Fold these 3 entries.
Entry 1:
Amino acid sequence: MRRTLLLIIAALAGLVLVWLIVVRAPQSQPSAVPAKQPVVQAPPKAETVATPAAESVESKPVEVATGPGDVVPDSKPPDPPKPVAPPPASDTQSEDADANADAPADESDADSESEDSGPPQIDTDHATDLLADMIAREENASDDDHLPNAVTQTLKKFDQESADASWSTNAEQHIEASLGAWLDALPADAQAHLALIHVECRATLCQVLAADNDPQAQGDRSAAGHEWQQAIGSLPQQPWWQALGFVDLSTEVSSADEHTLYMSYLLRETNASPAPDAPSDTGDGGG
């Protein structure tokens, strides 16, 4: 019995030994050399493409597998940069273009303003108001306000007179015709700034009102014979002067609102000879 038991143990031990030899035999064999993985060559470095308003694209190096456990990265080259659309024109550029388009008109306007830098054409209504204010001040002035003024005294005398039916209208027509002819003979730039405002004759006096709205150019016009007082001063040389009985004249010059105001009085001698006929519409030839 004991011998049988020993035989069984020996048989089991042999089986165990055989099993161990069979199991460990594959592990003890040398490991086979793994197959070499194909090596992928890195593509050439991509060149940076410069585009307007686009950032430079740098190519990344491609990693190569060196062993069985390494992972081969994707060797696909980077996508090319997307084209960048030009920026839309800004409002400032549009405004600049509009300004350039309007430049010729603005320059022409500037040239015209530089050529005519003086005051605008005289406004007779405004000049009439200024002369009315001037006459009102003279009429309201008393002898205590200032020294005696011949024009002021003449004005007050004129206010007290009435018209002479057989003489006043005739005298007014001669005066207006002579002064109108003088104005018509002036250069255009002088005519634009001088105006005969009013002529009125009464029994012994004629009142002549005029205005000039370019006082800075009076010196040049005076040198050229275009100043208003030169026209008034030429009246005694007219052929109707003595025939209408005029013997004297006086003028007061004032200024207001950049206007030069003229108030003249022509004095008639009451025992003068009969007045000449009134001038025709064409005038009697002013001085």
Entry 2:
Amino acid sequence: MALEPTTARGRATRDRILQAAAVLVKERGVALTTIDAVQEAAGVGRSQMYHYFDDRDDLMRAVVGATVDAVLADQDVLVKGVDSLADIDRWFAEVVANSWRQDSVGGCPIGSLASQLAEHDDVTRAAFVTAFERWEAPLIAGLERMQRRGELRWDVSVTDLADITMAAIQGGLLLAQIRRNPDQVRLALEGARAALLPAFAQNAAMAAPSR
């Protein structure tokens, strides 16, 4: 059974293996990322590999988690907390800017992995469920705060709004990747904003009912 490292050296070794695997997956795809290739890239032996990861599947699921970390690190507004419609606009602008910086190459890192791994088994699919939940969580938390303050209609589902937003991001990134046009992300997020806008309370009658 693989073990979580308890020392700084162990954590560094595990991180090195994980980062090597993530780079190889990005460059070669999941199918061509073998244990031997990861070992060579990370400069570790097989015993070290299996000390930290049960098998290749376990390693790939860990890559999913590391990919989420990287995606969230690129979304400063979301990580710091979405607390208004203006924050959502700034977050959307960050997502669009990231797509332009990458020239739309690669699409969404999480979506790309999901297309290769989500049907592998239920445990791996569950890792993607968790991945997207982590991505949505700051948005849901922000929408809930707005709803409590009466800025968002009490009768809308914040989870549904987050799902609509995530679907727009994924669809926009996919079209941008295929067409090599980052403007597809902007258009998709403009659609998401149009879907979100009616949920924002326009007057006191639309806010949460008094108790």
Entry 3:
Amino acid sequence: MSDERPIGVIGVGWVGLVTATCFAELGHPVVAMDIDPQKVRALSRGRVPIHEPGIAELLERNGERLTFTTEMEDVLESARLLFCCVDTPPTYSGDADLSRVQAVVSQLPEDGQYALVMKSTVPSGTGRAICRDAPGIAYVSCPEFLKEGTAVQDFLHPDRVVIGAGAGAEWAAAEVEGLYRPLGGKIVRTDVASAEMIKLAANAFLATKISFINEIANVCEEVGADVTEVARGMGLDRRIGPAFLRAGAGYGGSCFPKDVSALKQLAGNTGYHFQLLTAVIEVNELQKRRIIGKLQKHLGPLAGKTIALLGLAFKPDTDDMREASSLVLASRLQGEGATVRGYDPVSREAAAKLLPSIELTDSATDALDGADAAVIVTEWPEFAELDWGSLRDRMAKPVVVDGRNFLDARAMRAAGFAYEGIGLANDGARPNEAESAESAEAAPR
């Protein structure tokens, strides 16, 4: 493929870096541009500025195929397929901030040579507006469906690839399809507006499943049921499936909160009130705050108490703190007068910027030493491997609120902890894996 024309990637944040390194892994030369010179220098030297499993290895293995630059001219000189991977954060109104997308479009020549392939998440209607205002640019909507922590595998083994072609962009859509077809995912060819809506609708539905099971968990606590058993039984129904039915402290990250709010706002801008998404958002916010009530149940007023937050990133295998439950919890705990400690194995640098008033520790043990309670905020595997029996004696009070139902409730209580999960039965009993598999096989179909 030495004479192949390079792929252009504009914006090498999380989506752009995954896109660039994975295309390079597939054998394609890639020219990736970003306006941050520090990031470009780091990547050019083989240093990865984010925590995403597999990226460092791809960068090292494919360094000869990857070129990083701060100049748009470098991309335009060599590539004609330009994958737009810039950020589209929410504005105060809830709309997506498209200023970065607009900045990219303004730099592209309208001579019919270039195709803008939109990976950034944009409201439905964005592509139509770009096609109207810049008719000399072939426009293709190709939304990303990557999950932080498993993004490399998601890219290389997609469920589906959605491609929406604007007017006059069939040649570009065909080239994009050719890039993705070897990966084996279902190719969905559609119009631009529908492609844009598919991304927002998919994330909104997954967020809805999370908020739904959290509501069920709250009812389970009132009636003495176990949400893990309820979710297991629900998930065996093929119409429902088990994914995203794990109760906890709510969703966060860069996609779900932004995309759910963006879809709600998009509907509102047309005059339609999306009542279901309003409830999804409200449930998610309230779920984070229920942790405070569980702590007060065991400790009373939290003023003067020391609370350890174990895990600060919004999910394991990432250092992303965007919309993380830890941000809300730390703020609310400090509002109640508590002293907050925090530990996360990879997100300390990001946490120091976003949570400057809490004490960040070098280990989970340090965070727990003398604490009145611990909250499991992120289900990092190392927390399940801690010697909780010995840690109990190092805590001022043996109280653990498990915001992810990650630890073994029965073992924690047997070790002398006052253990609170999310939506668990009073005894905290759960079937082991063998029992779960046996029950699943015996379940009626």
